[in-house]
Amino acid sequence: EYISINDLLSHILDRFDMMVQSGALRDKNYQIVRDFTKRTLWVDVDQDKITQVIDNIMNNALKYSPEGGTITCRLMETHNSVVMSITDEGMGIPRKDLSHIFERFYRVDRARARSMGGTGLGLAISKEVLLLHGGRIWATSLENKGSTFFISLPYVSFEEEEWS
Ligand code: ATP
Ligand code: MG
């Protein structure tokens, strides 16, 4: 279905804002900052599946930011795609692990994984969902500084119709 990714992302972040404000995330002090393009970006996606992907990345950003901090969500466009990014100020991901985190059951160091809970499937599922949409998911990270997860989706342009 065709949806505005601006609206979908706003809606999801509203829900996370509510979780933070209600204290559902214990005492960690998070701030969620939005930096969206003003242009409405249309995508042709399975809304539930893309919601699941964004939920997982947001949950990771919260889960792997032991001190809280700012989570910045950006929405931008290139000439043929929509790009979302979610940046946290958490523990980061060592360089040697970065290329593996999208594999099934891969988790960065066992000690960390055991204390954090989870299955190590979230990002593998997210990658599959993006591939099915003709999109991409990738990450950059610096240890003890934080991580940024990027999602790109093909951009549906309605400009031609506007001109006819
Ligand atoms: P779940 O299946 O519940 O999502 P998970 O969070 O361990 O479990 P993934 O979401 O697939 O699994 O993430 C894989 C691994 O990548 C994590 O175990 C964690 O080590 C690392 N990771 C993911 N996101 C971040 C992040 N924002 N900061 C630091 N490490 C991360
Ligand atoms: Mg996860």
From TrEMBL:
Superkingdom to which the source organism belongs: Bacteria
Major localisation: membrane
Subcellular localization(s) per the UniProt record: Membrane
One Gene Ontology MF term: phosphoprotein phosphatase activity
UniProt keywords, alphabetically: Coiled coil, Kinase, Membrane, Phosphoprotein, Transferase, Transmembrane, Transmembrane helix, Two-component regulatory system
Single GO cellular component term: plasma membrane
GO terms for biological process, alphabetical: cellular response to phosphate starvation; regulation of DNA-templated transcription
Domain Histidine kinase: 1-157
Protein name, UniProt field: histidine kinase
